[in-house]
Amino acid sequence: MNPYAAPVAGRLTILGFVVCIVQLAAVSQLDFFGAHADLVPLVVAMTGLLLGSLPGAVLGFACGFFVDCALIQTMGLSSLLYLAVGYGAGRLREVRDPQAAAVPAVVGGAATTVVTVGYALMQFMLGTPIRVTGLLVGQIFVTILVNTLLSLPVYAAVRRWLLPVMPDDPRRRRRRAQTTRLSPLSRA
């Protein structure tokens, strides 16, 4: 059995519960230029980016299920979208291992795009009467922009929360060891 499984599961449970409650009770009430920020896809994507595809997908499914139950909306729709976001961000970490400083912003913007556009498309396919107007497109665009700006502080907060239970990645350890050597010119 993995020695990190229990501490990671505990931290993810607390993180998911807190972010869903904060999103539903406070952040969804704040208005930013006619749109609302959405912290749940950001936290799910950042968890996938930090821990991998499986923890990201599990947190995404759990948060989506909680949001669907709390808002009494179509069951499984948010779960599916958040699961895809967590899994996709985790696969990015596992396959490419991005190290650039802008990666959390790009992943946060992509996660928000997948969730907002995916939710609108799924509602349309389920037969919910949706009028696509300039106002709706503008709200989606502003939500993506606001979440992209919020993704860096959310990444820092999620990383700080998960840092005690993050497994040590041998690829990063090897890279760190190679970059700390002295240059041949500085040897005496």
From TrEMBL:
Per the annotation, which location comes first and is thus the protein's main one?
Answer: membrane
Database matches in InterPro entries: Cell_shape_determining_MreD
The transmembrane residues are 6-27, 39-59, 65-89, 101-122, 134-158
UniProt entry tagged with the keyword Transmembrane? yes
Q: What does the record say about its membrane topology?
A: Multi-pass membrane protein
UniProt KW keywords? Cell membrane, Cell shape, Membrane, Transmembrane, Transmembrane helix
| Family named by the database record | Belongs to the MreD family.
What protein is this chain from?
A: Rod shape-determining protein MreD
Native organism is Paraconexibacter antarcticus
Q: What is the lineage of its organism?
A: Bacteria, Bacillati, Actinomycetota, Thermoleophilia, Solirubrobacterales
